[in-house]
What we know:
- By secondary structure, the chain is of the alpha+beta class.
- It has helices spanning 13-20, 22-33, 97-108, 112-122, 124-130, 218-221, 228-231, and strands at residues 47-48, 53-55, 63-65, 67-68, 71-75, 140-146, 151-155, 161-169, 174-178, 181-184, 190-194, 199-203, 209-217.
- Strands 1-5-6-13-8-11 form a six-stranded antiparallel beta sheet.
Amino acid sequence: MKNFWNEEIMDIPVCRDISQNWQSIRDEALAYLDTPHPYSRDKSPTIPYPIYRVPTIDNPEATERLYEGQWGIAPLGVKRSKDTNHKSSSNIFGASEKFLEKYTKWKSGKTIDENLEYASTKFMFFHELLQKHDEGCLMSASLSLLTPGTIIKPHFGGDHFIRCHLCLVNDEACSITVNGETQKWENGKITAFEDRLRHSVEHLGTQDRLILIFDISIEYAKKYIKDAEFQSLVG
């Protein structure tokens, strides 16, 4: 079974466009991170990914913290998918969507939709780029800021979609492991995998790692990726 779809994902026009314009997206992201957020009580442009407890991979009866360190997230304003057929799929932040809706409201005093509306005004280039492609080509998009020393433990995410990481600011000592295979990010390149597979992240570097996370439904991706193994994925 293939764990990463980095080359195949480039057959999708919107992915090629995002990758080719990564520097402009990076510049918008860095400007966003440098701007005090009007909805945040501490003016931070990101919110910490909640440190909640989840069943461990090896012992479902036990629980442990999902990650250790500092992991900040921020939506980019992409509206939620209207596709109701994949209720187990995630939007915006991942499989813990409902929990994060409540968390975002508590942290910022605003709903996720209100935060999306604000974010859309800060990522004008990114949204203009998406308008060149099919409506709903992305299910969600957010920034993920990981500080040195952070460990995200092995876990499973949602299904029916491919999770894509566009690297905006890299650190060579930061890596992701999917189903036992480890890769490192590269500036301007997309790392793509099924979020339902067991995956983890280890940041042993010295500078923050910044990526754009976006999700593409497998059903949509199959329109462009004709690889036989990819076509066999459950969409």
